[in-house]
């Protein structure tokens, strides 16, 4: 509790100075003595290790003199971190009722109170304050209310909020979240028309194009699947591992495999090792094994990857029957190693997984989990 003593000492000193400067002298001294007396009682409770009584006493001082908002906000934050949400809520509620708060202080206190409510599981109360802040134009409320609607799966509320206040959504992360809200609502209602709205948002998102392509693919509408997925792989080439096999099959079903090869050539410069492996497979199908080996070897010299090395071993094994068994054994070891590595990683918090998640289970950001990169990645 000693940190509370140091935190609150400036409050007592500040109260004395403010009251002495802005009030009649006798009234200031009288009020100052009253505050100091009450403050001393609170400190005595703390020093006597009667923490509950001491903290309640100090909180009650807020009703007498709430001139130091910053100090009380800091105290409330400390309570929240300690898990004492009832006390954090009490301070923020008292602050909101105080007439001396300016507009920014009131908004900050309301936002902090909403955070308290969320941590305490009082989601309806949190939503009420966050909606008020959004309507008042405070962008700081977007992150918590998006997380709140994600948690409660109230996609329509999030969409309605965006459509009513789209001018506040200037951060790509927030727009991506809304794009995913459209996707979730579309899947819930089995209505791809809702999903198409997400494509026209002012920041491009991955999921709408992926879901529309996937929907067309499952319906064997390969023309539409190619349309959406080609757009997706051109804009977000790093996401190719999630759907490139299905994209290749879509071209094959339409007897347009040569167009898929042409697409791979266009993506070589900005694609990862998987694009390069697919390019090598295309060369093999055309009988150019030497060209494939040279291309992959040169690529690995510039950007070495485990997956690329594994595929090179397979190519060398096909070409060298004398050492095929040895190369196959080495490749099995390399493949086993690859299997231990996560396929996906969050670009915001570093969370790793073998499964794709549209919203990160760790940091709650949308579309930050992507196929792994680097020496173990794609």
Automatic annotation (TrEMBL):
GO MF annotation list: metal ion binding
Keywords noted in UniProt: Metal-binding
Record-annotated LapB rubredoxin metal binding domain positions: 344-371
Classification via InterPro entries: Rubredoxin_2 (IPR041166), TPR-like_helical_dom_sf (IPR011990)
Gene3D superfamilies: Tetratricopeptide repeat domain
Keyword Metal-binding recorded: yes
Protein's recorded name: Lipopolysaccharide assembly protein B
